[in-house]
Amino acid sequence: MTTTPPAPALPATRGQIVAWGLWDWGSSAYNAVILTFVFSVYLTDAVGSDLPGDVNANSWLGYSIGAAGLLIALMAPVIGRSADTAGHRKLSVGVWTALTVATVAALFLVQDDYHYLWLGLLLLGLGSIFFELASVSYNAMLTQVSTPSTIGRVSAFGWSMGYLGGIVLLLVVYIGFISGDGGVLGVPTENGFNIRLVALVAAGWFLVFAIPMFYAVPESPARTQQAPRLGIIGSYRALFHDLRDLYRTSPHTVYFLAASALFRDGLAAIFTFGAVLAVTVYGIGAGDVLIFGVAANVVSAVGALAAGRIDDRTGPKAVIMGSLAGMLAVGIVLLFVSGPTMFWIFGLLLTLFVGPAQSSSRTYLARLAPTGQEGQLFGLYATTGRAVSFLAPTLVGLFTYLFGSDRAGIVGILLVLGVGLLALWPVRPPATTTV
């Protein structure tokens, strides 16, 4: 991974950091509303509730997200490398964000009929692909809005903005469109119209709050050494060449990519299946799960902000290890308890650890990335993560099918988190700069 580094940029202003964080705030529309607490529940609890056959809607959701992960694994590193080389990280974020918004808006077409389940799963899979590809270059921009001594706090600020944005949007859609009979706006609920309308609101939310970053944060500089244009095959050849060089020069970076692939897949599964399991296993009402989502986002934001300062002082590895251990302990308890009250207690405790693990994983890699190659490395980060992203969803679907119980799907998530923790244990942490 050799290149001529770009010229150093001026330090980011507070306004640029806020504008960068607003993209995370807007992205909550996809993470909180579409993938976790509203539309995925609508697909499994309403659209696919009377699906004929032996495979239920929960299993099909797992297979759909797993298939999307495979496509992300193939595309992400090439896109990240191209954005680094040409100096168009911001453009890359813009293109994939626009496609995500369009896909979310198209979910309005998914009616409450199992014949539309395939369309909902297809659009959800495409949205996952587009959103992840947007995140590759967005995460790479972290080094443009932070310094080595503030990177943990800036990353945590972004994650907390995402959680807080999720709180506000969940309250808006719950009060306005879902609570009671179509919310305070009295939106018709027949054929899932109110939930389909929520998809349009989520698309608009993401679009509006993504815009400030494109005005405030400068585009990444192109590499001063002009790289030749590569075709698809040539891009993958270059990828394998870069991986070989990376392993020779920084093997622990490769080890981290492999370990994080596992535990990040477990984290993603928590978001994908958390609300679904809350309804089907613990008896939380489909509407009340949004209230839990609001509380969970508050707890996650607090955890991420607190961990950001710990990250800057002790390094990201300690934060990740502690968070994974905490999630495993709480997850084992959730495997055996029942009822809404127990889910509220231990579900919220679980979310306390999710934000720190996510934020510090981003800073871990950003600290390791050579200057000017952040996008490429975050592309590899997405690829290695998605290379096994079929694992947790597939295990959830498999355990659900084999034991005939949605609760059994929790075991699949815990297995992936546990293996990820063991894989991270021997990895050497990156250097930190204390203040």
From TrEMBL:
Membrane association type: Multi-pass membrane protein
Record key words, sorted: Membrane, Transmembrane, Transmembrane helix, Transport
SUPFAM superfamilies the record matches: MFS general substrate transporter
Transmembrane segments annotated in the record for this chain: 29-48, 60-79, 91-110, 116-135, 156-177, 197-217, 254-283, 289-307, 319-337, 343-365, 377-402, 408-427
InterPro entries registered for this protein in UniProt: Atg22-like, ATG22/LtaA_families, MFS_dom, MFS_trans_sf
Domain Major facilitator superfamily (MFS) profile span(s) in chain numbering: 1-432
First-listed, main subcellular location of the protein, grouped into a coarse class: membrane
Top-level taxon of the source organism: Bacteria
Locations listed in the record: Cell membrane
PANTHER family, alphabetized: AUTOPHAGY-RELATED PROTEIN 22
Name recorded for this polypeptide: MFS transporter
Organism of derivation: Pseudonocardia xinjiangensis
